[in-house]
């Protein structure tokens, strides 16, 4: 079969290109060529070559102009947010990020703080990938990779990754098989809602360097769409009409849907970035591969701080490592920048500065740094003795109101427009005046349009300012914005905030609560004179601590919420529960104690906050009981590199097998010891379901002396034939000959089973 017949669409495209430049006649050029030669395949190759020459020559000047434009746009960048006149070369400040391949495109409802903490415990079997390799076709796949969806929490570096790839292409370092690259942001596209363009016109609108091209059908293109989570266009993949011609006019959302579907420019490649909450906006059938930006690994964190600090780098890294809540957040590049900004200022002020030890303290210092810069730049102050001017206080209060309104009432909005600012008493012109100062808290996106888009540099900054607004409002007017308006005590104010945060199913108020209780400390209040009045609240703080401990002692509290309550205790400088558990562990008396729910939560917090990756977990080291296992199972499931789980002789019954089966989905788990527990047949049947689950990679399973009979051998035989098990210990169970025969059948169907040890009423069965 000739190449023409294999891909008639490609042939037609190339012929159209040759017709336009006059190389062949529009009237059936193939017949004309065959009359000359009769060799259709020879002419196919010739036409392909001529078409390539024509297209390359025609787009070369366009490509040069586009590359020059992208170099100018992305060659310099300021960390955190652009400051007027203060840009560093992107190549100089860029630190590689850890990006993993795979993962589901469905939405994860957890708050991003929880996702950050999960990211600090990478899975053992993760596959890393670079931006340069994203579109490389897999050997095992017949289909080329067309659309890559990259997810990652706010501030993790998705946008900078897109800018770096664009710059690398423009400077000839990567993806040189791509002829034209078009980086879009959804913030820019949002402004065009209600407008109509053809796809060609949309490209011309954003990239005027391409206006000499009337078609993009024959070119190798890469479209980048950054920030799907910020999209305010109604992307409807069910009912949007089909468009196949890039010159046909439609709404921007219709163009995007058809481009993603592959109806428009099916040979183009697409890279879309998003926060986790928006991953399901694009149906899975239109996504070739999902990747995740995980932020900095531990070595990358150190590399970042070594670049930012010189002589003090070792001391700074040591300090950050000593405070787990700060170290976890350092997976996020924007947080590293905030942290560096604060520490650099403090280290300049005195030889032995008191460095921040809590998250709230860090963000209070960050706000102080911004106010000092403003004071020096616009009011000719020295910054040494900060005086909060009325103007500065008003701006912070307005930013706080905006943060609260959009975060709590609008369920997590991160981008705003001028109308949103006006509603909160913010003047866009005033913000522009302080460009490069408070824009490090709140920045304006530079667009091609009259509408301007604003955002906080990171979700955590927005949550801090929202907490500051709620705190200010209560202490200045007595109004609790978190509950129906009525007069209440400070103790009731904080307890109502705890209750509200605990009611959130996805923890979207977790970080907000940490900041709110942290702002009650006099040490933080003294840093914000004029904004916060010292409340002399030792009694209030102690009442809040006791209320949090009371909540920790309630049955049924989820592990995620209890862990956040411990973070709140840290913000309040209360470490008593953790110190109590550590004392028990050091003395070896933990297994002999009847721990309260709060103490179990403290143990969970300590295990999950450990610096070292826990690859082996032996319940007997802590407390060999069924209750202990139930309390610690959420911890076990969170240990992403766990390979050995030892539960031997822990007094377990069949009732624990259902929750235990969920642990088998940990992809790194290879050894499970359940020997000497009265699991019974009913319990093991539940475990067998877990063993057959797709992610389960268990190789060794010990079930000796578990009270099993022959009736459990049928489900076990099914497991042997379908799972990854290579060693199964069933000693000291009453399986009978009939049970052993069933196991033999399972072994006949199994591959690479090394050994199975079984004790029955008969001496060792032959097949085993």
TrEMBL record:
InterPro entries: Leu-rich_rpt, LRR_dom_sf, NACHT-assoc, NACHT_NTPase, NLR, NLRP_HD2, NOD1/2_WH, P-loop_NTPase
Any matching Pfam family: FISNA
PROSITE patterns: LRR (PS51450), NACHT (PS50837)
Domain (NACHT) ranges: 146-278
Keywords: ATP-binding, Cytoplasm, Leucine-rich repeat, Nucleotide-binding, Repeat
Subcellular location: Cytoplasm
GO molecular function, one term: ATP binding
Entry-linked Gene3D superfamilies: P-loop containing nucleotide triphosphate hydrolases (3.40.50.300), Ribonuclease Inhibitor (3.80.10.10)
One GO CC annotation: cytoplasm
Protein name, per record: NACHT domain-containing protein
Species whose genome carries this gene: Neogobius melanostomus
Lineage of source species: Eukaryota, Metazoa, Chordata, Craniata, Vertebrata
């Amino acid at each position: 079969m000739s190449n023409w017949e294999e891909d008639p669409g490609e042939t037609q495209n190339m012929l159209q290109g040759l017709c336009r430049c006059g190389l062949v006649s529009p009237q059936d050029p193939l017949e004309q060529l065959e009359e000359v030669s009769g060799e259709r395949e020879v002419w196919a190759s010739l036409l392909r070559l001529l078409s390539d020459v024509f297209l390359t020559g025609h787009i070369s000047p366009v490509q040069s102009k586009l590359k020059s434009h992208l170099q100018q746009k992305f060659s310099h960048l300021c960390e955190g947010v652009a400051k007027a006149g203060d840009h560093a070369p992107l190549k100089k400040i860029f630190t590689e990020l850890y990006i993993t391949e795979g993962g589901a495109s469905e939405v994860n409802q957890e708050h991003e703080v929880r996702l950050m903490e999960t990211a600090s415990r990478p899975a053992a079997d993760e596959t890393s990938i670079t931006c340069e390799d994203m579109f490389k076709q897999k050997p095992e796949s017949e289909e080329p990779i067309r659309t890559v969806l990259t997810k990652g929490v706010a501030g993790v570096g998705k946008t900078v990754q897109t800018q770096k790839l664009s710059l690398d292409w423009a400077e000839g370092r990567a993806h040189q098989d791509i002829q034209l690259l078009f980086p879009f942001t959804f913030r820019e596209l949002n402004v065009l809602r209600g407008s109509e363009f053809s796809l060609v016109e949309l490209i011309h609108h954003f990239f005027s360097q391409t206006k000499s091209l009337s078609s993009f059908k024959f070119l190798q293109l890469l479209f980048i769409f950054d920030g799907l989570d910020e999209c305010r266009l109604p992307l409807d993949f069910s009912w949007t009409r089909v468009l196949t011609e890039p010159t046909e006019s439609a709404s921007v959302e219709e163009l995007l849907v058809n481009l993603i579907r592959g109806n428009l420019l099916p040979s183009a490649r697409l890279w879309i970035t998003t926060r986790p909450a928006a991953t399901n906006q694009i149906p899975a059938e239109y996504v070739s591969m999902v990747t995740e930006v995980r932020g900095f690994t531990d070595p990358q964190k150190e590399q970042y701080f070594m670049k930012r600090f010189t002589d003090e780098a070792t001391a700074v890294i040591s300090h950050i490592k000593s405070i787990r809540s700060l170290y976890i957040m350092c997976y996020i590049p924007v947080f590293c920048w905030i942290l560096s900004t604060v520490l650099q200022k403090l280290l300049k002020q005195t030889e032995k500065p008191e460095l921040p030890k809590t998250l709230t303290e860090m963000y209070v210092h960050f706000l102080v740094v911004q106010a000092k810069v403003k004071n020096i730049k616009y009011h000719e102050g020295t910054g040494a003795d900060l005086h909060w001017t009325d103007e500065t206080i008003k701006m912070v209060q307005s930013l706080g109101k905006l943060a609260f309104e959009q975060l709590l009432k609008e369920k997590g909005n991160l981008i705003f427009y001028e109308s949103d600012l006006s509603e909160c008493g913010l003047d866009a012109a005033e913000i522009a005046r302080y460009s490069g100062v408070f824009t490090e808290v709140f920045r304006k996106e530079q667009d091609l349009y009259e509408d301007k888009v604003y955002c906080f540099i990171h979700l955590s900054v927005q949550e801090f300012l929202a907490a500051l607004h709620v705190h200010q409002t209560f202490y200045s007017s007595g109004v609790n914005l978190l509950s129906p308006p009525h007069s209440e005590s400070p103790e009731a104010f904080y307890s109502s905030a705890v209750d509200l945060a605990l009611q959130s199913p996805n923890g979207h108020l977790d970080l907000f609560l940490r900041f709110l209780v942290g702002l009650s400390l006099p040490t933080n209040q003294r840093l914000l004179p004029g904004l916060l009045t010292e409340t002399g609240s030792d009694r209030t703080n102690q009442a809040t601590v006791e209320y949090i401990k009371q909540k920790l002692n309630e049955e049924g509290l989820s592990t995620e919420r209890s862990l956040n309550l411990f973070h709140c205790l840290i913000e309040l400088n209360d470490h008593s529960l953790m110190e109590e558990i550590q004392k028990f562990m050091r003395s070896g008396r933990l297994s002999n104690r009847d721990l309260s729910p709060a103490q179990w939560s403290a143990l969970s917090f300590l295990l999950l906050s450990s610096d070292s990756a826990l690859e082996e977990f032996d319940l007997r080291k802590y407390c060999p009981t069924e209750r202990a296992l139930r309390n610690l199972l959420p911890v076990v499931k969170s240990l992403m590199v766990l390979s050995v789980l030892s539960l031997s002789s822990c007094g377990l019954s069949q009732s624990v097998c259902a929750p235990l089966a969920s642990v088998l989905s940990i992809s790194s788990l290879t050894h499970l010891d359940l020997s000497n527990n009265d699991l019974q047949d009913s319990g093991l049947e539940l475990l067998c379901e877990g063993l057959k689950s797709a992610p389960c990679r268990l190789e060794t399973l010990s079930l000796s002396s578990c009270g099993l009979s022959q009736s459990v051998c049928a489900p076990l035989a099914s497991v042997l034939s379908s799972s990854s098990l290579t060693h199964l210990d069933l000693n000291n169970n009453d399986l009978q000959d009939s049970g052993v025969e069933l196991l033999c059948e399972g072994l006949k169907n199994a591959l690479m089973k090394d050994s199975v040890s079984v004790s029955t009423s008969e001496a060792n069965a032959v097949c085993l």
